[in-house]
Amino acid sequence: MEFDSGSAELNQRIAEWLRWDKNEKTVEEVRELAQRGEWKVLEDRLLQRLTFGTAGLRGVMQAGFNAMNDLVVIQSAQGLAKYLLQCYPSEEDRSRGVVLGYDGRYNSKRFAELSACVFLNENIPVWLYSSTVATPFVPFAVLELKCLAGIMVTASHNPKEDNGYKVYWTNSAQIIPPHDKNIQTSIMENLEPLESSWNLELLLSDKLNDPYEQMVELYFRKLQANVPQPFIRDYNTGSPLRFVYSAMHGVGYPFVVKAFECARLPAVIAVPEQRDPDPEFRTVKFPNPEEGKSSLVLSMQLANETGCDLILANDPDADRLACAEKDAKGEWRVFSGNELGALLGWWAIRCYREQYPDRSLSDCYLIASTVSSKMCRSIANIDGLNFIETLTGFKWMGNKSVELLSQGKTVLFAFEEAIGFMISPTVLDKDGVSAACHLATMACYLRATSNQSLADKLNELYDIYGFHCTLASYHFCYEPPVMERIFKRIRNMEPAGDAKQPDQNYPKTVGEGRFKIADVRDLTTGYDSSQPDNRAVLPSSKSSQMITFSFENGAVVTLRTSGTEPKIKYYAEMCAQPGQRDWNGSKATLREMVDCIVEELLQPKENNLTARSD
């Protein structure tokens, strides 16, 4: 049946979808929309398509080229397969294969199996995990099995309606330019699905193997080796501490259990309602422990009932870690990603010194994304390590780690404020399983050696390295043109001077002149007023918005759009000097500055932005 939408292009896309898609549900979805004449809906779904963004694809599961579904997954796998063969044309390289994993969301296993069939059809061997895995097990397998690439089917902490397709390159780090653009080009050149791409009987091929047992055993052997053995023997074994754990309806539980066993930590007390994979995420509004107390209600209830003072929580694909601790007054404190980054950064150094007491720290590196706290920089400056800042996202930190390791350097730790931590380069990506093991070991160590809580240790670090006060949050913005308008206005708030170019007329103050801006860095346009040539040192990209303001009082505030969600995020930090004690004053000033920036630059009322609810 042919449909006439009044648009030749849309008619062609509808016909292509009905011809190419073999999934009865999504075929019927498009057919019914066409029969009802819902052309605007079909335009949104068929005239645009998901493109490779933050390490791959992420979108809502529904019919259409602009969504996650069987056809788009097959097209993506075909494009990736062709690009791999272009990059690695020899038979010997092809035999290295690819590794595929999946989480517990709707369709994740099917998307992984369809992708496997595409690669098998190209005579590329496939390592397909036979059960749900934590995301870190895919880059780990790429590295250990020396695969050409890895794919993890997950939408991480997104709503239940979403799914995603995360791609790792041959170096086991997430893809970065030019691979993302080249893969997208290859997808566009291979849109028509081969008949064989739908043939799940290929899963019986002798070129399909299950890496689960081998990789799980090896992962935990390496994790155990990364925790100093005296710490396991003297502090973890027999520790009085107990930990409540939430898998947030995801895949983390069996892996965290195994991690605690190998480090001889007390067994976790799991939140039963959230322990096993549940694609409905039925007990939380957002399956994201980054949301703070609102996502940890059941964890806190269980901890109160069982007398536990510490809570650990992964996101659904277990590559992030949240932590809460009960204070002396019985109140729960949820640590921010920046606070956990400071603690784990110190811990990574402590573990290294324990294992290699005679080695210098001069070739050791700490890495953080540019919107994360500079606490690790302060630690590195005082303790004689190196600190490197990258663009936002672990794809940049993973690839920077690859570069440093190839030069014989030692990467101790990398983190981003969005509760992502890489403790040792065993996995060149954030890893919530190893982070949970190390954070629990640190808690046992502190209790045994100095009777300190995590909060006590954090305050001690602030005394030594300077108080670092951070604020981070976001507003929802569901209209991309509004996001663009907001940032265009920020770039043109001051009258253009003789020396200024269009889009370089940033505000000079906020708060009615009280807070003066010293420098502006715009990683969308590549402008940086702090550099002699006004060019940013970090790579810039016009595909996302990101502006950083450095204030005369030492505060640094970054505004950026999210690569995976309809959000405008802000990150603010005030860094005090070691020994400076007016911490409450720093907090109050930063809060006031952030309120001014949100009202004056983002203009939530005028732009119909919705503030974070928590």
Automatic annotation (TrEMBL):
Annotated compartments: Cytoplasm
PROSITE patterns assigned to the protein according to its UniProt record, in alphabetical order: PGM_PMM
Listed GO biological process terms: glucose metabolic process; purine ribonucleoside salvage
Domain Alpha-D-phosphohexomutase alpha/beta/alpha positions: 50-190, 219-326, 365-463
InterPro entries in the cross-refs: A-D-PHexomutase_a/b/a-I, A-D-PHexomutase_a/b/a-I/II/III, A-D-PHexomutase_a/b/a-II, A-D-PHexomutase_a/b/a-III, A-D-PHexomutase_C_sf, A-D-PHexomutase_CS, Alpha-D-phosphohexomutase_SF
GO-annotated molecular function: magnesium ion binding; phosphopentomutase activity
GO cellular component, one term: cytoplasm
Pfam families: PGM_PMM_I (PF02878), PGM_PMM_II (PF02879), PGM_PMM_III (PF02880)
Cofactor: Mg(2+)
Chief localization: cytoplasm
UniProt keywords, alphabetically: Carbohydrate metabolism, Cytoplasm, Glucose metabolism, Isomerase, Magnesium, Metal-binding, Phosphoprotein
Coiled coil: none
UniProt similarity note: Belongs to the phosphohexose mutase family.
This protein's name: Phosphoglucomutase
